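Fill in residues.
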């Protein structure tokens, strides 16, 4: 009964949020995109160091190829971290939801590489180099900003043409699927705002 009441209350808030999103769309105002994971939360020092080390290894490889280093962006790192947490929770690598992450980043061009189980950043880069698609992402000269997110044995590298503009955290209630993923329709605004 309590769970049903919580769901009904959430549904009422979601409908109200949908009306607000529609108003923003009609007015031509930017509409925040929601993630199924919190955008930011406290990060353990070890995870932060692993993220920095992986971005450094990617940048060292890019520099050795005569390419500019990607600038680190905390917004992209937060989006990448949320995806890595999702993969860790599900126990599998998945590019599912990439379009949503790119929309959340607010860039017209993003690339993404994923890895699991590689404790040494150089091993992850070596693995990506052996895959033509992932290697092309590493060498993409159109992107200039990157963020790495680590959760457990999973890591996400998200690189985009532009940095993320600062936004407030936005989440969907636990257990609610990524709205709009299949249809391409943007998810509703967080009803708690």
């Amino acid at each position: 009964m309590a769970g049903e009441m919580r769901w009904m209350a959430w549904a009422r808030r979601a409908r109200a949020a949908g009306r607000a999103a529609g108003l923003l769309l009609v007015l031509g105002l930017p509409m925040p995109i929601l993630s199924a994971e919190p955008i930011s939360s406290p990060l353990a020092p070890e995870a932060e160091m692993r993220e920095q080390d992986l971005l450094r290894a990617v940048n060292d490889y890019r520099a050795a190829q005569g390419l500019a280093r990607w600038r680190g962006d905390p917004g992209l790192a937060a989006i990448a971290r949320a995806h890595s947490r999702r993969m860790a929770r599900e126990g599998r690598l998945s590019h599912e939801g990439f379009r949503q992450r790119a929309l959340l980043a607010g860039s017209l061009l993003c690339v993404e590489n994923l890895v699991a189980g590689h404790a040494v950043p150089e091993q992850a880069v070596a693995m990506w180099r052996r895959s033509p698609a992932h290697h092309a992402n590493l060498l993409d000269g159109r992107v200039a900003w990157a963020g790495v997110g680590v959760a457990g044995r999973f890591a996400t590298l998200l690189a985009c043409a532009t940095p993320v503009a600062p936004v407030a955290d936005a989440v969907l209630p636990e257990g609610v699927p990524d709205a709009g993923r299949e249809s391409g329709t943007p998810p509703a605004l967080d009803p708690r705002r």
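The first helix runs from residue 2 to 27.
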